[in-house]
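We emphasize that the prediction below concerns an isolated chain of 144 residues; any contacts that depend on oligomerization or on bound cofactors are therefore not represented. The input was used exactly as deposited, without trimming of termini.
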Amino acid sequence: MITIDTQLTIGKRRQYTNLWSCLLEVQTVEYWQDINPPILEFLRRRLCSLVKLIEPAARNIVNMDFENEIGPGVDVFLPFTGSGTDKARFLMEVRHFLSQQGNHFAIMKLRQNEQLTPKDLSDLEQIFLDEGVAGADDLERIRA
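Result of the prediction step, given as a token string:
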């Protein structure tokens, strides 16, 4: 049988008598014979309430001095990585820009949730390019 060496005081043991008996029962071989996941979860929940009873004790600080065994860094070429354009960030900037601009016909159609024509889309792209909101490569990535 496994002995339980905890820092519980006698008064706390009396408060948690049924949990103490559970701890003793868990140590038997018979308890583990027909264990299944629901019983294991029930046991876990009961035992979690005991954690608060363990009083913190002073612990020694351990300092380690390890040698670097990894070695020097090496640059690695990753051929299929993106350029760093974040679609969510791009969309946030576009929405902010659209909230600031209101005098263009295509932008008014966007705000009123009207159908955009191909001409309206090209006008919006040109506005983004003129104002520096997006570059041509950004617009190509969003189209894809």
